[in-house]
Amino acid sequence: MASAHLFFTCLIICSMFLLTFPCYAANQKVTLSLYYDSLSISCATFIVKNLAQIFDDDLITILNLRLVPWGDAYASKSNNSTAFCQHRPDGCKLNSLEACAIDVMHDVNQHFALIYCIEFLAIEGRHKEWETCFSSLGLPKKPTLDCYNSSNATKLEQNYGNETMHLNPPLKFVPWLVLNNQPIGNDYENFTSHVCKTYKGNIVPVACQSVHLKQKTE
User: Fold this and answer.
1) Residue 8 near residue 136, CB atoms below 8 Å
2) pTM for the complete prediction?
3) Is residue 18 over pLDDT 50?
4) Which residues, in sequence order, are CB contacts of 155 under 8 Å at separation 6+?
5) What is the chain's percent helix, strand, coil content, to nearest 5?
6) Which terminus, N or C, of the chain has the lesser number of Cβ atoms within 10 Å?
7) The CA-based dihedral angle spanning residues 37, 4, 57, 210, taken in that order and rounded to the nearest 10 degrees
């Protein structure tokens, strides 16, 4: 857990240094959307072991990262405000909690750090200790919990559920990655290569240099 705590802390601190990176035009950024279930081990593993790397190799500088915590859940036909999750009730609770974190923490470095922490605990079977993530990261707990305990949490999840259930082509499994509205499918672990090949900007981040060099020589 010590190494994970170090990662969480560094992730938030690094958000201050991102301001020193070259300016990437907003319209050149690639939009990467992750549709996931907070208590799916495959999703948790992908977030912790794969997706977190975008903060280490500066890939985040060319990304609009969207996290959509809904996964395989579905809404009740009789009451659209009631969600049924694969890992209920804890899965629904953490989906809503992470949705609120995304909503109240506008800095992707902060809400990703919190989600990373929760997913790390999920892998270890300790997801019920999610509140410790706020203190570990030095993040205020009240805004997220205020959201979670209000009708806003339900609205956020309804929006995520509606978006997920209307994907075209439809979601087939989780984690499900969509890059500029195109699903990556089974090759999701190789998402960096897909991002780099899609990115059309002139300033190439370290993570994409080998990919772009290969494209120029072909």
Assistant:
1) yes
2) 0.85
3) no
4) none
5) 60, 10, 30
6) C
7) -80
User: Could you tell me where the beta strands, DSSP code E, fall in 77-211?
Assistant: 83-84, 176-179, 182-183
Query: Which residues on neighbouring strands pair with residue 177, listed in sequence order?
Result: 34
Strand pairing of 182-183 and 83-84?
unpaired
Name 75's bridge partners: 83
Amino acid symbol at 39: L
CB 83 within 8 A of CB 161: yes
Neighbours of 158 (CB within 10 A): 16
Which among 89, 70, 86 has a CA at the least distance from the CA of 158? Answer: 70
Tens of pLDDT along 103-152? 999 999 999 999 999 999 999 999 999 999 999 999 999 999 999 999 99
Buried b (16+ CB within 10 A) or exposed e, 121-147: bbeeeebeebeebbebbebeeeebbeb
* Contact between 191 and 177 (Cβ < 8 Å): yes
Which residues have CB under 8 Å from 5's CB, separation 6+?
136
Chain-centroid distance of CA 217 in Å reads 33
